[in-house]
Structures are given as structure tokens and as C-alpha cells.
Amino acid sequence: MTNPPDATSAPPPALAVHNIQIVYGGAIEAVRDVSLEVRPGQIVALLGSNGAGKSSVLKAISGVLDAEDGEIEKGSIQLFGEAIERAEAPSIVRRGMVQVPEGRRLFATLTVDENLVVGAHLQGTARMAEARDQVYELFPRLADRRKQIAGYLSGGEQQMVAIGRALMSQPKVLALDEPSLGLAPLIVTEIFNSIRRLRETAGLTILLVEQNASRALAIADYAYILENGRVVLDGTSEQLRRNQDVREFYLGLSSQAGRTHMKDVKHYKRRKRWLS
Predict the structure, then answer these.
(1) In whole angstroms, what is the distance from residue 26 CA to residue 22 CA?
(2) Which of 50-54, 103-107, 260-264 has the lowest mean pLDDT?
(3) At CA 111, angle to CA 189 and CA 126, rounded to 5?
(4) Are 47 and 226 in contact (CB under 8 A)?
(5) Is 64 a member of any domain?
(6) Cβ(101)–Cβ(137) below 8 Å
(7) Is residue 121 part of a domain?
């Protein structure tokens, strides 16, 4: 596995995962020896198909594995140089990292405004008002719906509220779990443009867990690909976009510039170079 570019001269990572192994129920291994780094101000994508172990890694980083009887068997996780692999979720949030979970998980009976306030429980009144203004500037359509019940919003609007709620704590590291899931292409474009804007205007460090490799590689600086609970390939977004196997089996483009057919998948595991 290659290292992120300019690793020797770059600042220390905001988030560093070293050889973690994740087991559920004391018996089912979901992740084995996964390592990754996210440096300050980067967008780093964690890619892979459903069941590859992406969400398990994110839950371990966020301290919520125990809710599903999961456990880090070995390895370490550092946030700004401090070990957090045994820390509880509230402590991790206080240290500056917040997760936007898969499926949004809003308080459906509360308004948009009330959902945002929930995310600001660590902030004073002035900081909360400032953060809320920033969220409405990032997502103007939410400002028009601030008194609307969250459960009646569209899927894209709910995703915006979920991201906005996380931003209310003014995190240093934002972890996003499948933000494009179930959304129309135009809304996905809007969401991903907002993610890019957060990095460019606020300098926010972002870990992006995604199945949509094409969208993720378009905004990420660096990416890791997981399969069967292991990192099988990593590199800059440009390096991965040029990789023939990534192009065929993650971006859907064959070497003849056509689309990959399902029958080709049978040959995938036999010829995939990064597993050799």
C-alpha cells in the first residue's frame, strides 16, 4: 500500500487508523488490518461495495461499534495524535470529530430548526446562532423550510439537515457515511458540491465513506478501496481514476471506453491485480 503524497513533509494526520481489526459478536470478523490517514484540510474517500467494511471502520472511528455488539480487537485510532480507539462517542465529539450517519437518522417529528439545535448541544447561544447561520448559508433551501417538520422533507433535504446538524457542533473532522444513498443525481451533485465547499471555504477535514466511486473521486484528494474488510488499493484520486481495474469495476468504464457487462464480473476476482 502506498503512502499519501508528500507524507514526510506534510503536517501530522488529523485522523490516523493503524491496523485495526473489527469483530462483531466476538466471532464475525468484519475488518482486518485496515490502516488509513486523513490529513488536515483533506477530503479522503473510503470506497468499496456494500459489505466491504466501510461503515464498520467509520463506526469504530466514531466510537459507536458497541451499539451493534462490535469491538476493535486490535489496532489503534488517533485523532490529532490522541488515542480514541477505546473512547466513547461523546468524548470523540468533544475532541472535534462528528459523524453524519447513513440513513440521516433525523428527529422526524422536530422541525429543521429544532434538529439543528440538537446538534449544537456543546455550543453556547452565540456560537449556536453563528453555526446555524452558516448552515443556512451552505444550504439556502433549508432556510426556507426552517419551521417545517423534518419527516416531511425530501430525501435530499433530509440529508442536508443531517449534514447541517453535524456542522452545528463546529467539528474539525467531519465523517460522512454514504451521503449519496437513495438520492437523485441532481441532489447528489448539490450535496457533493457542498462537501467540496466545506473543505475549500472552512478548511474542514472530511472522511467520505461512499459506494459511488465516481462522485467521491471527483472531490477527494486521496482514496482507499476496501474489499472483504481489507484495504486493497489506495492512492490519489487521479491515480485511482487512471487505474484500469478501478475504471472497469468501480467507475463502470471498460478499456474500450464502453460500459462493463455483468458477465465480466466473473473474471474480476481472477484478474484483479491489486489482490495478487
Answers:
(1) 9
(2) 260-264
(3) 90
(4) yes
(5) yes
(6) no
(7) no
Q: Which CATH number covers residue 236?
A: 3.40.50.300
CA-nearest of 68, 50, 47 to 59 is 68
Q: Extract the runs of DSSP E, i.e. beta strands, from the chain.
A: 15-24, 28-38, 43-47, 70-79, 82-83, 97-100, 173-177, 205-210, 222-227, 230-236
C-alpha grid cell, residue 67 = 451499539
**pTM of the predicted model as reported, rounded to 2 decimal places:** 0.85
Does residue 261 sit in the same domain as residue 235? no
User: pLDDT of 200-219, one tens digit each?
Assistant: 988 999 999 998 899 999 99
How many other CB atoms are found less than 10 A from the CB of residue 265? Answer: 11
Per DSSP, 211 falls in state: S
Considering its fold, how many domains does the chain have in total?
Answer: 2
Q: Tell me, yes or no, whether 76 and 47 share the same domain.
A: yes
Residues paired with residue 142 on neighbouring β-strands, in sequence order: none
pLDDT band at 274 (very low <50, low <70, confident <90, very high): very low
The residue segments making up the domain with residue 271 are 247-276
Q: Which secondary-structure segment (H or E) carries 58?
A: helix 54-62
Whether residue 217 is found in the same domain as residue 273? no
- Give dist(CA 228, CA 184) in Å, integer: 28
As a whole number of angstroms, the distance between CA 42 and CA 199 comes to: 7
In DSSP terms, 72 is beta-bridged to: 22
- What is the chain's length? 276
> Could you give the count of Cα atoms lying within 13 Å of 194 in the half-sphere of its Cβ?
27
- Widest CA span of the chain, in angstroms? 58
First to last CA, the chain: 13
Task: Decide: 208 and 46 in contact? Cβ < 8 Å.
Answer: yes
The DSSP result for 235-271, as a single string, is EEHHHHHH-HHHHHHTS-B-TTSSBPPGGGHHHHHHH
Q: Grid coordinates in use for 126? A: 452565540
